Amino acid sequence: MLRTNGEGYRCRHEFQKEKKPGTSRILLFGDSYTAGMGVDDRARYGEQFEVLRPDVEVFNFGLPGSGTDMQYMSWREDAQEIEHDLVVISVMVENILRIVQTHRPYRTLEGDEFLFAKPYFELSEDGSLSLRHVPVPKEALPTKESLSDPYGRFLALRKLVNRFGPRVKDQVQRFSRFQPLPAYNRSDSPSWRLMKSILTQWTGELSKPVIIMPIPLYHYVEKTASAKAYQARFQELAELPGVTIHDPLPDFHRFDFEQRRGFRFERDCHLTSSAHRVLAESLSRAVEPHLGDLPLPS
């Protein structure tokens, strides 16, 4: 069950500019993991957070299929005039692949796949960002005509493994220890430099405190791939003014393997309601220094 508000976002709150008396307000940005793909509205971590912190309302700007670049544009277009106390930027770590894409794949109701253009940023040699594809070209392209591998390396091999089902895929991952996001391995990688520049520019425009929360892929939750590289990259942002980096991965690791496997669906990598609960509790502790003293979840 889901609903959208008058602005088209999956949020039970209408985006009123002024806060309600006696409440705090968080503006929450992210992709489908934040929008809550696969779970009811009430099961999402934004809603579960509001249960834990009833004095706080969460404006959820989650955009399925988006990257951190488009979420930044969402802030610019729809959120910066809204009164708030804290901004939470939830970066699903796979977004480092999306921000370098000029197009995104979509499937029609008939099952045909096409690529549609998206706004994107280019990083110049002097470190400045230039916005491209505005206005956005409307022409749809067949998938074979553009992106070579929109999701990373070894696309053909991963498609082959996927044909054997989730159990075989999980076994291959545990055996191979495949690193799904090598773009985080080096601080000077082009993708990370672009991500860092986007987040630096975005947070520099904010007048309130910011929490950047990297949401891990299931490979890192289930410990079949090392998270050290992306954790090190996000810590580079900790020196930005007004920015706190909150890593929820240790909270996922408090659970045994079977419980951690239950944090994603059988045939889909999105978060189940139990994983959203972990994120809500983790985020509740992270915002405590910013929003005052209320009892923490046990």
Note down, in words, how this protein is organized:
The structure is a single chain. By secondary structure, this protein is of the alpha/beta class. It has twelve helices and ten strands. The chain has two domains: 24-95 and 181-291, SGNH hydrolase (Rossmann fold, 3-Layer(aba) Sandwich); 102-146, no CATH class. α2 crosses α12 (273-291). It is globular and about 50 Å long. The relative contact order is 0.15.
Annotation, overall tally of beta strands: 10
Q: Which of globular, elongated, flat, extended, rod-shaped describes the shape? A: globular
Roughly what percent helix? 25-40%
What gap, in angstroms, lies between the N and C termini?
Answer: 28 Å
Question: If you compute it from the alpha carbons, what radius of gyration comes out, rounded to the nearest whole angstrom?
Answer: 19 Å
Q: Unreliable segments (pLDDT under 50, ≥5 consecutive)?
A: 148-152, 293-298
Briefly note the CATH topology name of the largest domain.
Rossmann fold
Number of helices: 12
Outline the fold blueprint.
Elements: E1 24-29, H1 32-35, H2 45-52, E2 56-60, H3 68-79, E3 86-92, H4 95-98, E4 103-107, E5 113-117, E6 120-123, E7 129-132, E8 140-142, H5 155-162, H6 166-176, H7 190-204, E9 210-215, H8 218-221, H9 228-235, E10 243-245, H10 249-252, H11 257-261, H12 273-291
Helix pairs in contact: 2-12
